[in-house]
Design brief:
The complex is a heterodimer of chains A (111) and B (116).
Chain A lengths: L2 E3 L4 E5 L4 E3 L2 E3 L5 E7 L5 E6 L10 E2 L10 E3 L8 E11 L2 E6 L3 E6 L1
Parallel strand pairs in A: 2-11
Antiparallel strand pairs in A: 1-4, 3-8, 5-6, 5-9, 7-8, 9-10, 9-11
Chain B lengths: L4 E3 L2 E4 L5 E6 L6 E8 L3 E9 L2 E5 L6 E5 L5 E5 L8 E8 L11 E2 L3 E5 L1
Parallel strand pairs in B: 2-11
Antiparallel strand pairs in B: 1-3, 3-8, 4-5, 4-9, 5-6, 7-8, 9-10, 9-11
Classes of the chains: A mainly beta (111), B mainly beta (116).
């Protein structure tokens, strides 16, 4: 089965603290994973994708195939990081690509 | 701004009614995807169109249908609306036709549908 699990609905940290948003996936093929962010009242924006291996806004994520995880990390949280974060798995099915999303984690960064 | 536009922003209607949501993809993108975001189901893939042709269906009800026009804009039609259809409906666009290497999907701002 194709599934993305984000176990935490809410993660509250203080400014300057490290952040780790957890994401685990289930997929029989070769996974391609994304993190999307949704700031309050705004559209979903791509934060990063694992094949790019780039750091956006200080966030990084490493694909761990052994643990089937793609956790999002940032060493020092900022208040402007407060948002909803979604992990997504790309599924290739013949004629289409579609994204399977996790349920999201709300990150709240306290001053 | 990702360049994907959706209208209307908000829609309030009654049960049993029919509505049409509109999406314009980014310039040059040929694929349009529709997703439904609800409190209980999260973000769910509904349907994918490429250059006017339906490519795949996800968890889309029979009461829902979509199409993509020659100018590449897409419409999602929801009929016989029920209270449970209240949700945020997103469209996303991408350049490729799908089925191979994943290209980035860029999302629109969404249409919030409220069924009373």
């Amino acid at each position: 089965a194709q599934r993305v699990t984000q176990p935490e609905k809410l993660l509250s940290v203080f400014k300057g603290a490290p952040v780790e948003l957890k994401c685990n996936y289930s997929y029989s093929g070769s996974p391609e994973l994304f993190w999307y962010v949704q700031y309050s009242r705004q559209r979903l924006q791509l934060l990063l994708r694992h094949i790019s291996r780039e750091s956006i806004k200080g966030f990084t994520a490493d694909l761990n195939k052994g643990e089937t995880s793609f956790h999002l990390k940032k060493p020092f949280a900022q208040e402007e990081d407060s948002a909803m974060y979604y992990c997504a798995l790309a599924v290739y099915g013949g004629a289409t690509n579609k994204l399977i999303f996790g349920t999201g984690t709300l990150l709240a960064v306290q001053p | 701004d990702s360049g994907v536009t959706q209208t209307p922003k908000h829609l309030i209607t009654a049960t049993g009614q029919r509505v049409t949501l509109r999406c314009s993809p980014r310039s040059g993108d040929l694929s349009v995807y529709w997703y439904q975001q609800s409190l209980d189901q999260g973000l769910q893939f509904l349907i994918h169109y490429y250059n006017g042709e339906e490519r795949a269906k996800g968890n889309i009800l029979e009461r829902f249908s979509a199409q993509q026009f020659p100018d590449l804009h897409s419409e999602l039609n929801l009929s016989s609306l029920e209270l449970g259809d209240s949700a945020l409906y997103f469209c996303a666009s991408s350049a490729l036709r799908g089925g191979g290497h994943m290209d980035t999907q860029y999302f629109g701002p969404g249409t919030r549908l409220t069924v009373l």
